[in-house]
């Protein structure tokens, strides 16, 4: 009987310790999760729940050795550091980050820029259940119980409260996180009397950390100063990016342009376009809008006319050299897409995208390729 009591007490103590560690993890990373929600549109509750589950609240080998809190594998587009562990297969490649913050940002971008996750951004940031089941549907995890586990963490620890937190509340969360880190440091050092050399080393490290923290805060303030009014008002982003070509044009989402003699035209990346109708050609659309055929072909990255299927986007002005802010890149999930298809989708000149990425004229996108849509020209090796 006594043995059973000891076992029960041990299990209860382990569960209590685990719960305490989860709460510490949430307090530490909630500010980052909320900030990422406003930057990318991924709910903070989902980010935190995935971090808890994938990294075992920061204690997993991937998190401890490689700052990888979300179990993101290398994939074809990863060029950074790597570590290898057995997962679905033996010796699989996982990403390694310099800091955990980089892991959180990469997790947001991983969902934001890949086509197979784009439907998630149709859900509200407060609809954590749809996001949880959507992640499983998109193939983020093979565990059939994955959505239920995320939802349990979200509801047990009220992570959904972070999904409605204004951006202004992040500073308060950061203060709490600092208190937790300081308390943990004090606890670890309580039983250890450091030498003079250790004290000096710690003081130097502390001074460096303070300087880095100060620089980080100044950087964040600068970013906020350059942010849109929407970010500064503290509104929750519903779906910050349009990552797919809509089959039906939603007039409420597009700026309307008025042309004489024409039907309505809409804007993508600030460039007006129409969608072709049955029987139309590039020549008939050019004539209708007072353009030369050569002009409209150039606007749409074409050297010669081609068959125009109904519903095709046809730009009426020259496309931009870069995509809209917040849409820095695109990760290819389908080999069938051409570079022109991608440029038409985001309203960017194909010549500019080639220059930014250092692509030659014969480049054909392959699955896993990262295509930059904004930035300076780079030379490919």
Could you walk me through the main structural features you see in this protein, from its secondary elements to its overall organization?
This protein has about 375 residues and is α+β, with helices and mostly antiparallel strands. It has two domains: about 1-230, Lysozyme, CATH 1.10.530.10; about 250-315, LysM domain (Membrane-bound Lytic Murein Transglycosylase D, Chain A, Roll). It has 13 helices and eight strands. Helix 1 (about 1-40) crosses helix 4 and helix 1 runs antiparallel to helix 7 (about 170-190). The radius of gyration is 25 Å and the shape is elongated.
Structure characteristics:
Lysozyme; single chain; 46% helix; 2 domains; 13 helices; alpha+beta; Membrane-bound Lytic Murein Transglycosylase D, Chain A; four-stranded antiparallel sheet; two-stranded antiparallel ribbon; 381 residues
